[in-house]
Design a protein that fits this description.
Elements: E1 4-9, H1 12-20, E2 29-32, E3 39-42, H2 44-48, H3 61-67, E4 70-73, H4 76-90, E5 96-101, E6 104-108, H5 120-135, E7 139-144, H6 147-159, E8 166-168, H7 174-182, H8 194-202, H9 208-212, H10 216-222, H11 225-234, E9 252-262, H12 265-285, E10 288-299, E11 310-321, H13 324-338, E12 345-353, E13 356-357, H14 368-391
Parallel strand pairs: 2-4, 7-8
Antiparallel strand pairs: 1-6, 1-7, 2-3, 5-6, 9-12, 10-11, 10-12, 10-13
Length: 431
């Protein structure tokens, strides 16, 4: 029988901040989204004050001032680096691993294989202790005979102190498992979103146990094959297997809201140039080529007093490319055609589309010179990527991306990049 574990970081962004700033431990802390807009991570103390996930920060500022809530801007470079370290450590605890998100990882645990401990609860505790001791991050471990039950077990481990951070549903009797599922609202089941939950509630299916006991064929007809699979997985029938391969993305999106409204074309040009540079780096990282570039701009739909405008266009390339300058040429060509003066723009973005593996490049019949030029341009961008990886982000960049960047998003409370920028390394003092 297959056994799965789900390891999930507790309040991951807040926990990463606390590793390098112990002053935050025990205090209510929230991490805010881009432009310090909404709460995207909360400490347990902040949750206890009633601060909801996704709530706009300005709506809870009076509450925050009253209770001394500490707000931090998101520091994605730090979180991504800590995530990479955590996933590397977790890879030593099981022969099979699926990195599910920045703070979640499935492990394939088959006792006896790869020298695994047959006591999976003890194995889960060993995982927690290693991650805590080596990285300073708290995690919980859920174990079950299916991925859905492993997710359910992780939820139980996080919300019920009795389990001490590790819940193994694979060793429970059917009666004990049903008792636990009966106490969990159906919306907490993996894959059950808000709309499906509301429809299930209308069918008087309100708990995870009720969904488990529902007619699987009926659920499949009413919703989808995926929902039917969820029912089967709740019954302990493993259908979802580990996905250990990391496939390339089908599209690459890079967009940001501006820190202040943008009214000049040159600022929009700088922003689009910056986004193309970032998207092209990701494109080359996954060894792909793009055959089309979509660029879009829009005003802020929530500022009713401003004139509203949004537009986008897709530019098809004559040949697939990963060269930043060629992609940028297409994006700026599109930007010129959709730009209209007189508006206060709030956001711009680019999407690299129709991606193919780099080895499948198909050149036109009479383009030998163009192919040589493309190869030279690709060598140049790969050299720039290498220098930036060694010397730091944006050590070399296109001048069109601007220097001052007045449009840049607001991150007034961002912590240092402790692990990725030399000059921002944490300094330890000994007394």
């Amino acid at each position: 029988m297959s056994i799965f574990a789900l390891v999930d970081g507790n309040n991951f962004y807040v926990s990463c901040e606390r590793v390098f700033n112990p002053y935050l431990i025990g205090k209510p802390v929230v991490v805010l989204s881009n432009n310090d807009g909404c709460a995207v991570a909360r400490s347990e103390e902040a949750k206890a004050l009633g601060i909801k996930m996704g709530v706009p920060w300005f709506q809870v500022q009076s509450l925050a001032q009253k209770h001394g809530v500490i707000a931090l801007s998101s520091n994605y470079a730090l979180y991504a680096d800590m995530s990479n370290r955590m996933m590397t450590l977790l890879g030593h605890f099981a022969p099979h691993q699926e990195i599910y998100s920045i703070d979640e990882c499935f492990l394939g645990l088959n006792p006896g294989l790869g020298g695994l401990n047959t006591n999976l609860t003890a194995h889960g505790q060993a995982i927690r202790q290693r991650i805590k001791r080596w990285l300073g991050l708290p995690v919980c471990v859920g174990i079950g005979p299916t991925k859905t039950l492993a997710k359910m077990a992780n939820h139980i481990a996080k919300t019920q102190p009795y389990w001490q951070g590790v819940c193994d549903l694979s060793i429970l009797s059917e009666t004990m498992l049903d008792d636990l599922l009966a106490a969990i609202e159906v919306g907490e089941v993996w894959g059950i979103g808000r709309r499906i939950r509301e429809k299930l509630n209308n069918l008087n299916i309100n708990t995870a146990l009720a969904l488990k006991q529902a007619d699987a064929d009926f659920i499949g007809r009413m919703f989808s094959v995926t929902a039917k699979r969820t029912v089967m997985e709740l019954r302990g029938i493993s259908i979802l297997q580990l996905d250990e391969t990391t496939s390339g993305k089908k599209q690459i999106l890079c967009s940001r809201s501006f820190g202040t409204p943008v009214t000049h074309y040159t600022d929009l040009q700088e922003a689009v140039t910056s986004y193309i540079i970032r998207a092209a780096e990701k494109l080359r990282c996954q060894s792909s080529l793009a055959h089309a570039v979509h660029v879009y701009i829009r005003t802020n739909p929530h500022r009713k007093r401003d004139a509203q405008y949004q537009q986008g266009t897709t530019v098809t390339l004559s040949e697939s490319a990963c060269d930043t300058t060629k992609l940028l040429q297409a994006a700026l060509w599109g930007l010129k055609r959709i730009y209209r003066p007189g508006y206060r723009y709030d956001k711009a973005g680019v999407i690299l589309m129709n991606l193919i593996p780099a080895g499948m490049r198909q050149t036109a019949l009479f383009t030998n010179d163009m192919a040589n030029a493309a190869n030279k341009a690709q060598s140049l961008t790969e050299t720039i990527d290498l220098i930036n990886r060694r010397m730091g982000k944006d050590t070399l960049s296109l001048a069109g991306a601007g220097i001052v960047k007045n449009w840049h998003m607001k991150r007034r409370h961002k912590s240092p990049c402790y692990t990725t920028v030399w000059k921002e390394l944490a300094i330890a003092h000994c007394h």
